[in-house]
Amino acid sequence: MEKADIWDQVGLKVGFEFCDSSEAAEKALFSGDVDFVSGNHISPYLLVRRGKPIVSLSSPSNSVNYSVAS
Q1: CA-CA distance, 45 to 4, in Å (whole number)?
Q2: Between the ranges 23-27, 34-38, 40-44, where is the mean pLDDT highest?
Q3: CA distances from 35 to 32, 60, 62, 68 (A)
Q4: What three-state secondary structure class fits 48?
Q5: How many CB atoms lie within 10 A of CB 44?
Q6: d(CA 55, CA 48)
Q7: What is the DSSP letter of 50?
């Protein structure tokens, strides 16, 4: 999407930063420092169960190779 200039076309400012801690990523998400976390595969299920305001897009297994962009 970046190479096709789609982010700019839809008015989104996107930055990619690696974070090796799901706890730090979730803290940034809930504080409003970031709007989207990718690659957090386990704890979103717990966050939803605990009533946290989170939307989790996930695949049912590792063998699913479809992509979603909205």
Answers
A1: 33
A2: 23-27
A3: 6, 23, 24, 17
A4: helix
A5: 19
A6: 8
A7: T
Rounded Cα distance between 44 and 55, Å, is 8
Residue-level pLDDT at 27: 92
What three-state secondary structure class fits 23?
helix
Q: What does the block give as tokens for 51? A: 């009533």
Contacts of 42 (CB under 8 A, 6+ apart): 22
User: How far is the C-alpha of 66 from the C-alpha of 64, rounded, in Å?
Assistant: 6
Position with higher pLDDT, 28 vs 58: 28
Average pLDDT taken over every residue of the chain: 83
Model-wide pTM > 0.85 = no
Q: How far is Cα 63 from Cα 47, in angstroms, rounded to an integer?
A: 24
| Residue that is written with structure tokens 């897009």 in the block | 57
